[in-house]
Amino acid sequence: MRPDNPCIDYLVRFETPVPFRQPRWARKILAMANPGIELIASGGQIYGLGRLKPDHDPTALDAFTVNFLDHYQWELRYGNFPLFYSRYREPRLPQPPISRERFESNFLRIFPGATSLNADHLWTLFEACASLRHGSMLVVAEDAASEAARLADQGTAIRPVLMTSHHCASTK
Question: Cβ(135)–Cβ(96) under 8 Å?
């Protein structure tokens, strides 16, 4: 956003902006940023550290955020709306999440012995995992018992329990 935007609450404002062309300097400043303390930049220069004031009007279309997600992965957002993602220099547009109907249809097709109740339960787990701020993985297998027996020497065997969305939320 423009460095003189009145909606910026500066915590630190540099006398002289730091150009992105100076990567060592820019990285040191970026390392000072964290959730709640953002880097304020515009036109290839860093003007300071701060945040948007709570009364910022999101319809003004004057503030965009770049979130660094992982190594060579980032996203450009406008408010809570993702505009695009980049992973290893490959830009992608955001994809809408799978619909519940399509998820359940695919699940019942792939697992013909499953019931609608099974599909409903797995959808609940899927939603809980998708809402996490970090990665997660759900593995579904018809032969889970034989896979557990096959892999028993490579890990610690556990007794099966019915997983709930509470299990996913407790790892946030």
Answer: no
Rounded to two decimals, the pTM is 0.53
Cα separations in angstroms, 27 against 11, 20, 63, 95, 131: 18, 9, 21, 30, 29
* Contact indicator for 130, 172 with CB cutoff of 8 Å: no
- Which of 65, 92, 119 terminates a domain? The answer is 92
**Which residues lie closer than 8 Å to 53 by C-beta, 6 or more apart?**
7, 8, 9
Same domain, 60 and 119: no
The domain of 114 spans 100-169
| Rounded Cα distance, 19 and 41, in Å | 9
Identify the weakest region by mean pLDDT among 24-33, 46-55, 127-136, 152-161. 127-136
> 79 with 21, same domain?
yes
Contact 41, 14 (CB under 8 A): no
Residue 97: count of CB within 10 angstroms of its CB: 11
Using alpha carbons, list the distances in angstroms from residue 83 to 13, 20, 77, 98, 109. Answer: 28, 22, 5, 18, 33
From 66, 92, 118, the end of a domain falls on 92
